[in-house]
Amino acid sequence: MRAVREARMFLNQERRIPRNVNVEYSFIDILPDTTKHLQYWLDARRAENAIDLIDHKQTEIITNDFLQSLPSLVQKIQQRKMGEHALFVLDQYSYKDIPLPEIASILRTLKGAEVVMTFNVDNLTTYLSNHAANRKSVENIGLDKHIPWADLNMLKATQKREWRQSLQRYLAHGIKCETGAKFMTLFFVKPHGLNSWGYWLIHLSNQYRAHAVMKSLHWEHATEFGHELEPGVFVLGYNANKDADYTSQQTFEFAGTASKEACIDGVREHFGQTIFQLNKPTRLADLFQNCVTNSTAAENHLMEAARQLHASKNIIIVSKDGTVRRNNKTYSLSDVIEPSKQIILI
Predict the structure, then answer these.
(1) Torsion of the alpha carbons at 233, 236, 241 and 247, rounded to the nearest 10
(2) 8 Å CB contact between 58 and 24
(3) How far apart are the C-alpha atoms of 158 and 194, rounded to whole Å?
(4) Sign of CA dihedral 63, 112, 180, 295
(5) Are residues 224 and 181 in the same domain?
(6) Would the pTM count as exceeding 0.85?
(7) Into how many domains does the chain fold?
(8) Of 5, 227, 259, 302, whose CB neighbour count within 10 A is largest?
(9) What is the pLDDT of residues 276-321, one digit of tens each?
(10) pLDDT tens column, 9-45
(11) How are strands ordered across the β-sheet holding 252-253?
(12) CA atoms of 87 and 136, how far apart (whole Å)
């Protein structure tokens, strides 16, 4: 609500006729004490003018199970007829509360939907074992077929420190598959204090622009996020041929020049390999969208990787009207990139 207030202020700077940001809020929790406290808290914030009156009026607080309330909530969003734009923030206690097929239904039904959810991956991997009770909880959320149950004991025995990272690849791949999201941003949040267990903050959408904005926010709040896969472009799922690469990977922190350079270097290498394997003109939009889910890079890092490749003169970039581009800091997503006929060896 504070963010919406700031957006209204920004939109109405130097305007005589004010513009509104029309947002409706639905808060759902199964515990009556929780919803009662939330109502008290919102009333108090309104009383001290910390939130706008229009937002307070357009807020509903529902005491119910989220999944039971979901059908009516989806219907309400569809009736708004405003592009079906909706942001679902699902803050579950562990990892068992939100079946992934339900998220798939949200993204499939509402064309403008985004989902931000927490997922306690350390809790899941720590207690993961090939026992019926344990498998049942994973099955309930739709991830059971993505777990290498037969190899679980072997992974833990042969990879004393790195088996968690191997399992994370399986889990991340499973989440993307089961939700059907075109784009996924997945990063660690590492809590302060004695409890070192981290959880994933996952953003799911079918819109590239929504994904790009979310990725930029991760870098903006760099000190709060980490990542335990490769800094450039990584692979979800497990490949035994790359075991040495996986097990030597350290936690990637979203902070500092070194992290940014490592990210860009990895993306540039991936782009170079992809462009020459395709060996044909490719839109930058397609090149970016085909790798962003499996990358730590925000759009500005993708642009910089393309610029560095362009500066090497091993590739050329052409605008949609056929004009050959000069090396630049940024390009249009409609530009076309392809291998240069004259390869420069460095």
Answers:
(1) 80
(2) yes
(3) 28
(4) negative
(5) yes
(6) no
(7) 3
(8) 302
(9) 999 999 999 999 998 888 887 889 989 999 999 999 888 999 998 9
(10) 999 998 999 898 999 999 999 999 999 999 999 999 9
(11) 85-90, 112-119, 199-205, 183-189, 225-227, 252-253
(12) 29
Cβ neighbours for 78, distance < 8 A, ≥ 6 positions apart: 84, 109, 110
Instruction: Tell which of 64, 81, 96 closes a domain.
Output: 64
Considering 19, 40, 64, which residue would you say is the last residue of a domain? 64
Q: Report the SS3 class of residue 147.
A: coil
CA–CA separation, 42 and 38 (whole Å)? 6
Cα dist. 321→276, 309, 334 in Å? 23, 21, 10
Task: Report the distance separating Cα 185 and Cα 198, nearest Å.
Answer: 16
- What letters, b where the CB count within 10 A reaches 16 and e where it falls short, cover 209-227? ebbbbbbeebbeeeeebbb
Burial of 54 per CB tally in 10 Å (0-12, 13-18, 19+)? middle
Residue 346 lies in a domain: no
Residue-number span of the structural domain to which 103 is assigned: 70-254
